[in-house]
Amino acid sequence: MIVLTHEDVADLLPMTEAIEVVATVMKGVSARTAQLPLRAIVPVGGDNKMGVMPGSIADPQCYGVKLVSLFPGNPAKGLSSHRGAIVLFEAETGAAVAMMDASLLTAVRTAAASAVATRALAPERAETLALIGYGEQAEHHLEAMLAVRPIRQVAVAGRSAEKAAAFAEAAAKHHPGVQFTSGDDLRAAVEGAEIVCTVTASPAPIVMGDWVRPGAHVNVVGSSIPSMREVDDRMIQRGAIWVDYLPSTLAQAGEIVDMIAAGSFRAEDLKGEIGALLSGGVAGRESADQITIYRSLGIAAQDLAAAHHVLERAKAEGRGQTVRL
User: According to DSSP H, which parts of the chain are helical?
Assistant: First the structure.
């Protein structure tokens, strides 16, 4: 088995490569060549949880499991809210062939999935971006959006104007060709953006559908369990929605689950999975004024494909520590 650290993953999974890896595997997901049990969530004290995400994919052929701790208080300690490990198995003999840090891989593949959806759905010349949130996912979503659209202006917004300003100041140093603004006025940030990414841990809606301008694209990312939701009902009513995996959306996307239970939305109202859109099985944006939404939950297939990519590069470059089990 090869053991790979956070630094190994950082070097071996650049965003541009992650985007193509995720795009490929999502086509397989929608073709139902993957086995993806729903994520299990285990309470481990207070607001903390452990997520268990097993799965199997056909291309590349492998299977494995991600064990990840979800600790919302970690950012205040300078740590990722998602910490854990991915164990990857090969399909021929069932051997465990790699274990690697899951925190960075999760962040990169999540942002890469948003980039895949943005590339498929957002206006091609979109130049304005709103990041709602200023944590680890905001950092990677900024990189991902810059990789697929000619972003020139970024508004960073959240509950803390100070934290938003600190994020914007740091980001401006890395992206000198981009103009950054920041603050705690979420509405102003959303109203001015052609692309919106919600990347918070909010348990209740903080972004309203009436704020979104016609023709915008929205990536709803931060909430991954049914009890959490970042957007209100109006967002779901106004937008055309594509998802990563329908079974998980209908079980774990809080706003969708709530509205179906209330009778104000139907599963049939979803446009379909992003992989089916990429493969030509479902239609994409219908007009310049249509609001498009990608509802991201994150699935094990993305983790497995990204982990396999990291492993192959590690073997080619002699990276990692080899251990005997």
Answer: 6-12, 15-30, 103-121, 136-148, 161-174, 186-191, 233-238, 246-252, 254-262, 274-279, 300-317
